[in-house]
Amino acid sequence: MSADHGAPMDYKAHNETYAGFLTLFKVGTIVSALVGFVVIMLISH
User: Count of H helices and E strands in the chain?
Assistant: First the structure.
């Protein structure tokens, strides 16, 4: 049994997970900025 058995599948799964994380991080950043802006507007009025 070689050390790299199944490695291509592992890398594919890793890349999909990482892409999903980046998408979630980008959306979360935008949502957090919008919520922060709304809270600031509510406090300032």
Answer: 1, 0
